[in-house]
Amino acid sequence: MPHIISFKNSCFTLNFTGFVRFRMNGPDTSIEAGKEAYGIKTGYTVLNDESSASISLSVTNCTDLPIEILQIESIHIDTPEGISAGLPWTDIQAMILGRHKNDIPSIVTLGQMDDAMSDALSGMTETGQKAAGSDSETVLGSDTLTVLKGASGYLSFEYPGGETCFCFTRISPDGHSPALTSGCEPGIILAPGSTLTAETLELHTASHWENLLSDYTRRKSSRLGTRHGTVHVPSVFCTWYYYGLTVSYADIQHDLSEIIRRKLPYEVFQIDEGWEITLGEWQPNHRFPVSMKALASEIRAAGLIPGIWTSPFIAHKTASIWKSHPEWRLLNTSSEPVLFPMNDTVYHVLDITIPAVRDYIRNFYSKLTQEWGYSYHKLDFTRAAVLYPEAKRHDPAMPLPKAYRLAMQAVREGIGDDSFLLVCGGLYDAAIGIADAQRTGSDVLSMWASEGDGGKAVPFTVKQNLLRSYMSAWWYNDADCLMLRRQKTMTRDLKLTLGLLSDVEIRTVLVNQYVSCGLLSQTEPLQQIESDRLKELGHLLPLIPAAATPELFDGERIPSRIHLHGDGFLELILINWQDNTDLPVTLSAEDVLGSCATEGRYLLSAFYSRSYCIVSGNENCSLGTIPPHGAEIIRIQPYTPELPMIVSSTGHFALGAELDQIKNTSDGVILHPVQPLPFDVRYTVLKPDGTCTDVQVTGTSQPDC
User: Fold this and answer.
1) Of 474, 497, 415, which Cα lies nearest the Cα of 213?
2) In this structure, which of 202, 221, 599, 652 has its CB flanked by the most CB atoms within 10 Å?
């Protein structure tokens, strides 16, 4: 029997049914939600008020046989006519957010098979190149959050949990049946007499998409907790994006000595993949003649926090863990080990539904932290444990996301509350309240266009980060490593060593880090990097807490306008995605502030053009142009003529928000930074008399040594 949900003062109405799909001694079978058949009883509750709705669905196995629950569809809409949005199906916009970091989140118009649709139907490779979409795959797949834009408002499909079962919303852009389904995929064996309660689906409407996203993150935080703000977010030197698997003890010694000699502003030295004998054999290889405990001591002696890369859920087939515990392998339906390919090597996968495996993980990370001395942990390839729902698990009644959360909790228990945990390449929802940082995009490349497929490396990874910026409510978003070097030829036969970005393109890469409002990690050969590129770090450090909101649902393939809200300051970041056309910067205060603009005058300052203007709310001013692939940062603040005000800077993108005090004295203008600045900075200050003066602030590092 169809159900109808409508919302007061909203253009959305849904006409739908629900289904439970299962397997019991034969082919896949389905029954309509709310009905009883084949000895299976389903409960189906639909609640609806003026602006929201919730759908709960349960399944009870009343038979004497185990049942494999494949899929629970809380909403099943056969045709586009099942959704009324105040406009044709083909004109509805949808925000699609994939499950894994290598997916490309996108905002698409359902009737347009354009570049944005191509992004949503494809993904990224592990090395940051765009993966081609399948010609036969015409279904848009989203995870625990999907947003539709109708004629007069927005509708979200939300799963406030998401840590127990895989959740999905799938939309057919061509309108073929089914047009839209939303539900969860438990992928479990339901024992006789047992009941499974599916993840609750919530629907919410709002006149602005920003309200939907902020309410969604708040509800998640309330349910699962958050570690955001509980530990210090550091600046990190990481070894991967130059040395790769060739990293050695000598490389680390060289970079540590350069950090000390040049007083560079890193807080963590993180040793990435390549230090181990092999994955699962967690001892140093032949390139590391000292113990990892001794190396951690050397890093601490250099004044930095020791960090280490591991991949806890996979191990090479030769690893000794399989000799002592062959029963810990995750097996496929043929009782052969599940294979996870990565970096031209194939690995076996640990079955994280086994309690002893989670004990091993807890003890392993306790050893790394308590015995070896590493308190910054980067975990990689954690998705391997949840990619194979058809595999034979030790506990077939445990959904994989629940097992993943238990395994991540074991990691946290091992490293303790005071250590920093960065997760790279795993489930998002199941790590909320556990992870301190999460990667929000694919591995970066230091080039605008990726080789081989003609794709554009930087635009795609920036797009991933921007459309996942709402996640910064749960943890520090990790936009991946910053690479500033110039290098046109490979060394060590590694593409990772290249640095092919122009000086203009570097601006967009820096802005990508800035608007992530999270972790800053960098990889360079410190003995070789040019001083002018290294000093670009001063645009980002010290890290200043802020929140970024890209402008969405404006029809652009990649957002080009991002609003940054910091403690006492507001900025508008602009990116020119064009390949050959300059972008003029003509703005008013209302363009930046919208309805928040009040009477009075505002000071608009542009970072790269070093231009500024004083305007009233709706008065336009020109602040230069942005070259192709470039970016600009505009700070806006109420103009206070009796006070000295920063109008340009060679340092931080915050354009003075990094300063604690600006004083106009008889001896001149005095500036006090909140924290010591990493490099020398020249500020241009607009004085009360209308003239400008330059003020130099001395930094702590020595990049020119």
Assistant:
1) 474
2) 652
